[in-house]
Design goal:
Its EC number is 2.1.1.192. This is Probable dual-specificity RNA methyltransferase RlmN. The chain is α/β, with parallel strands linked by helices. The chain contains twelve helices and 14 strands. The chain binds S-adenosyl-L-homocysteine.
């Protein structure tokens, strides 16, 4: 029989499991608290659990604990980039960003990615595998333990396409926001997707209060297809219909991400087309100056073009921000830290 993953279970599931082992009900609460509130890195830490129980748990279940391989700390803004190793040797990265309103962690949902977006480093070597709910949680847990500061916001915007690992990501969200765990408000959790239509519709009906961010990156299918292969599968009108459905079902305001690439999607005609396209959604547009990766020739739009693009959207009454680049001095966009680690290892 395949082993069950301790840290991916809800409290009721864990209780059933421990009852079946002949343990008293309070043991599951203790164990759950060690994992999800005290953020224990090992079973050995759980000193109020009998040693023989800890040994049985270690032998009969999957115990997920991430090993920190590297931490890069920005001298400019305190941003920290973490490289973690999974039990099978795969590595993933996560980022802690410090804002006035609190600490935000960006987590990976997959090791690698198979979506193939042209400007993104996470997808260059394809998908290694999906992450377990516990492996996504552990990124937040290890960072909170490392800094000793409470994490108040989580964005699923690291490597991977969260909607391509749907069940594990939804379970992760429920565990992260559970009152008996870290209790992070769902309103402070954002999931970013390249636009997998059936999964967006399914997510709309989960009864969650998270923010959905759509990676739009273009105001029409033609330009979008140049940047994102997924646009060949789902045309914009279908993706936007699914987003409207999400908004309707959850009442949550949408975020549209738009990475500005010089000469590809950043002129005023494109800003106008974008405003026409999403003006009716009362969403928020997040402009991201593209972070050039070595393997591709995309160039960041210049300051004036970014400002003109932003100014135009504002004039049209659209809520827009330009994403501040965090941790500039420690380098790298989504997946670059992992990629450079893997390249080094190969060499
Ligand atoms: N798979 C999810 C999460 C990706 S990362 C998605 O597609 O939404 C979060 C955002 O960063 C996405 O909008 C992604 O398209 C964008 N992104 C990835 N690499 C980038 C780069 N080098 N420069 C700018 N934006 C990038």
């Amino acid at each position: 029989m395949e082993k069950k993953d301790l840290k991916s279970m809800t409290l009721p599931e864990l209780s059933d499991e421990l009852l079946a082992m002949g343990e008293k009900a309070f043991r599951s609460k203790q164990l759950y608290q060690w994992m999800h509130q005290k953020l224990a890195a090992s079973l050995d830490e759980m000193t109020n659990l009998p040693k023989n129980l800890r040994e049985r748990l270690a032998g009969e279940y999957i115990w997920t604990a991430l090993e920190t391989v590297d931490v890069k700390i920005s001298a400019v803004d305190g941003t920290r980039k973490y490289l973690f190793r999974l039990a099978d040797g795969n590595v993933i990265e996560s980022v802690l960003m410090r804002y006035k309103h609190g600490n935000s962690v960006c987590v990976s949902s997959q090791a690698g990615c198979r979506m193939g977006c042209r400007f993104c480093a996470s997808t260059l070597d394809g998908l290694a595998r999906n992450l377990l709910p516990s492996e996504i949680l552990e990124q937040v847990y290890r960072i909170q333990r490392d800094t000793g500061e409470r994490v108040s916001n989580v964005v699923v915007m690291g490597s991977g396409e969260p909607m391509d690992n749907y069940d594990n990501v939804v379970r992760f969200i429920r565990l992260l926001s559970a009152p008996e765990g870290l209790n992070i408000s769902q309103r402070n959790i954002t999931v970013s997707t390249c636009g997998l239509v059936p999964q967006i519709r399914r997510l709309a009906e989960e009864g969650l209060q998270i923010t959905l961010a759509l990676s739009l990156h273009a105001p029409n299918d033609e330009v979008r297809r140049q940047l994102m292969p997924i646009a060949n599968r789902y045309p914009l009108h279908e993706v936007l219909d699914a987003c409207a459905f999400y908004w309707e079902k959850t009442g949550r305001r949408l975020t549209f991400e738009y990475s500005l690439v010089k000469g590809v999607n950043d002129n005023l005609g494109e800003a106008k087309a974008l405003a026409d396209l999403i003006g009716g959604y009362h969403g928020h547009v997040n402009l991201i100056p593209v972070n050039p990766i070595r393997e591709r020739s995309f160039v960041q739009s210049n300051r004036d073009a970014i400002e003109a693009f932003r100014g135009y959207l504002e004039k049209r009454g659209i809520n827009v921000t330009v994403r501040r680049e965090m941790g500039r001095d420690i380098g790298g966009a989504c997946g670059q830290l992992r990629k450079s680690y893997m390249d080094k290892k190969e060499a």
